[in-house]
């Protein structure tokens, strides 16, 4: 944050100056980690991977239905600032419509 950067930081990456403000969240996190000295090895293309089998996942997370060739949309209602968030009602309506169209919808966030 430009406004509340903290006084204990020894590295600062200014949004818009050293880091594009339009950078997707995952790429932003990778850039920050690299700046802190944690670069990915050249052999890692930074794509997410699922380690293990669907059966192992199902045993560890029984509350989550494992999709097999289905259609999945991940909805994340939260955002870093209120102006980027949809209203709760708009998000609810959108998720309901996607589910009615046959999509499996996972809602993430805290």
From TrEMBL:
Organism, as annotated: uncultured Arthrobacter sp
Stored SUPFAM superfamilies: UDP-Glycosyltransferase/glycogen phosphorylase (SSF53756)
Name this protein carries in UniProt: CAZy families GT9 protein
Superkingdom of source: Bacteria
């Amino acid at each position: 944050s430009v406004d509340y950067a903290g006084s204990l930081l020894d590295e600062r990456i200014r949004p818009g100056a050293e880091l594009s403000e339009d950078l997707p969240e995952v790429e932003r996190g990778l850039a920050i980690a690299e700046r802190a000295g944690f670069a990915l090895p050249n052999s890692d293309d930074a794509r997410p991977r699922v380690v293990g089998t669907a059966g192992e996942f199902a045993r560890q997370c029984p509350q989550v239905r494992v999709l097999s060739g289905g259609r999945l949309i991940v909805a994340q209602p939260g955002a870093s600032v209120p102006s980027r968030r949809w209203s709760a009602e708009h998000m609810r309506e959108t998720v309901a419509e996607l589910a009615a169209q046959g999509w499996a919808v996972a809602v993430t966030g805290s």
